[in-house]
Specification:
The complex is a heterodimer of chains A (342) and B (158).
Chain A (H helix, E strand, L loop, with lengths): L5 E6 L6 E6 L3 E7 L3 H7 L8 H19 L8 E7 L3 H18 L3 E5 H7 L12 E6 L4 E8 L2 E7 L5 H11 L6 H9 L25 H17 L5 H27 L4 E5 L6 H13 L3 E3 L3 H4 L3 H13 L20
Parallel strand pairs in A: 1-4, 4-5, 6-9, 9-10
Antiparallel strand pairs in A: 1-2, 2-3, 6-7, 7-8
Helix pairs in contact in A: 2-3, 4-11, 5-6, 5-7, 6-8, 7-8, 8-9
Chain B lengths: L1 E5 L2 H13 L6 E5 L6 H11 L14 E5 L3 E6 L6 H5 L3 H5 L4 E5 L12 E9 L4 E9 L7 H8 L4
Parallel strand pairs in B: 2-5, 2-6, 4-5
Antiparallel strand pairs in B: 1-7, 3-4, 6-7
Helix pairs in contact in B: 1-2, 1-5
Classes of the chains: A alpha/beta (342), B alpha/beta (158).
């Protein structure tokens, strides 16, 4: 690959269709996500969610926009990267098929990126110098995983959720409180006006040193029961207090397990936070505080690179291709793809 | 209609597991109940009964998870879906008429897309006792057929 390597990254694993152009795995030249307002304006209206047919309808305009914003043409590209799982099979297939067609016709190498690994690589787009080994917490609507990385592509899973993902619980509690979707940002904001001590919710699997798995289904049920009791009592449900207490319970578990991972697997210089919930202000504050007390540095992506995006896939793809990890033409979507160790 | 009372999360899972052991290929299970009723707990039991190894997560975000046991398990969740149109685009029919077991959380949101032959299960929270009541309702060709299997589920020793 040339010294200036341009990778086009495609991400269609769930709701959003995204394409991005990234230079040398570090610099975002463009990152177009179908749910962004700027794209809606171009496309003329709100782009509906979820369905793979919509990915199919808008992926070409999204790619065109990504190229034109980056000021490059197809012939300038050095590689194509695509997330091929985990995710919704119909949605994934759109990205995978388009990526294969592009790579084949442009005679470019193709990188098949694990969506979760992509989230980690959003941190390589922050400008920070990142050094291995490192610990990482990927926390989103679909996943909650603690990982140890020895080097590029060498991932060890330390813990993961046994039931609901943290982001999913944020969404469900927000809906139960009548706050709308997505739940993360609204709860984060509302919690600032609330008193976390007003309610006490369970912290699952907290006491067990060494156990790095998560469970958020219990706190979800406890909050829902509490909302119901409050509603029955009549009067105003203390929404802000509930949001604050709930958020504190989830954040505390995430932070404590992260520190536990460091104690158990070894302190690393850096700790990466990734995934949609990495945008949560309280999580960032508490985690940074605790990590600093043991001389570890917290790195997290800017908000727009926390949620699903093509730039993180392009960044991961750059390192895949640099290691010679090219996908073959029979690449398929793998909806239940796991993170593999080295 | 068949009713089982579950006094704990563990028992809900065991009921699911026993059912999972006795499921015929191609069956569709429509699972309903409010948030926190234990739908995913029940589904985890069904997966265990089907011989699925490993963790069974909530599929709310990804809409569908596929697991491999003695039969495939297609674990759906309609929670996040808003329009019936979105469902048709997921290619649901392909799963309904496949060889594996289809289990759908929040199936009641879109009753129109479900096949007439299915097992309806509703989990109802009893707040006073913190227990759950599970209602089983086999429909269509399943009528009567599954009752013997369900009695096994409710029988002591399971």
């Amino acid at each position: 690959m040339s010294r200036k390597t341009l990778i086009l990254g495609l991400e269609t694993s769930c709701d959003d269709t995204s394409a991005a152009v990234v230079l040398n795995g570090r610099t975002v030249l463009s990152n177009v996500v179908s749910s962004q307002d700027s794209f809606h304006l171009r496309f003329g209206g709100v782009v509906p969610e979820i369905a793979s047919r919509h990915h199919l309808e808008i992926i070409n305009p999204v790619i065109d926009e990504a190229l034109s914003k980056a000021g490059v043409a197809f012939r300038d590209l050095d590689g194509i990267a695509v997330s091929y799982g985990p995710g919704l099979v119909g949605s994934l297939l759109v990205g995978v098929s388009v990526a294969k067609a592009l790579a084949f016709s442009l005679e470019l190498p193709l990188a098949a990126v694990n969506h979760l690994e992509g989230h980690i690589y959003a941190n390589f787009l922050t400008g920070a110098t990142i050094s291995f080994p490192l610990l990482c917490l990927v926390v989103s609507g679909g996943h909650t995983s603690l990982l140890y990385m020895e080097g590029h592509g060498q991932i060890e899973i330390l813990g993961r959720t046994r039931d609901d993902a943290a982001g999913e619980v944020f969404d469900k509690v927000a809906r139960a409180l009548g706050l709308g979707f997505p739940g993360g940002p609204v709860i984060d904001k509302l919690a600032q006006q609330g008193e976390a001590a007003a309610f006490s919710f369970p912290r699952a699997l907290m006491g067990e040193e060494g156990k790095l798995d998560f469970s958020f289904s219990g706190v979800k049920t406890a909050v829902l029961n509490c909302i119901r009791r409050e509603t029955e009592k009549g009067g105003q449900v203390r929404t802000a207090d509930l949001a604050a207490a709930f958020q504190e319970a989830v954040v505390e578990v995430l932070v404590e397990k992260s520190l536990m991972a460091a104690r158990q697997r070894g302190m690393t210089r850096q700790f990466l936070l990734a995934g949609g919930v990495a945008a949560n202000g309280e999580l960032r504050r508490k985690l940074r505080q605790k990590l600093e007390s043991v001389n570890m540095e917290l790195i997290h992506p800017p908000v727009e690179l926390c949620t699903d995006n093509g730039a993180m896939i392009a960044a991961a793809g750059y390192y895949y291709l640099r290691q010679g990890r090219r996908a073959s033409w029979d690449l398929n979507a793998v909806p239940n793809l796991e993170l593999e160790g080295a | 209609m068949f009713v089982i009372k579950s006094k704990s999360e563990e028992m809900t899972r065991i009921v699911g597991r026993t059912l999972g052991k006795n499921l015929p290929p191609g069956i569709v299970i429509a699972l309903n109940g409010e948030l926190g009723a234990g739908k995913t707990v029940f589904a985890r039991g069904v997966a265990e009964g089907l011989g699925v190894a490993g963790i069974v997560n909530s599929p709310s975000y990804v809409i569908m998870n596929l697991y491999r046991g003695r039969m495939e398990l297609y674990h759906f969740d309609f929670y996040r879906l808003e329009e019936e149109e979105e469902l048709q685009e997921l290619g649901l029919d392909e799963y309904f008429y496949a060889e594996g077991v289809t289990l759908i959380e929040w199936a009641g949101k879109f009753p129109g897309v479900l096949p007439p032959t299915r097992l309806e299960i509703e989990i109802v929270k009893d707040y006073e006792e913190n227990s759950r009541i599970l209602y089983f309702k086999p429909l269509g060709d399943l009528e009567g057929f599954l009752i013997e299997e369900l009695k096994k589920v409710a029988a002591p020793g399971n």
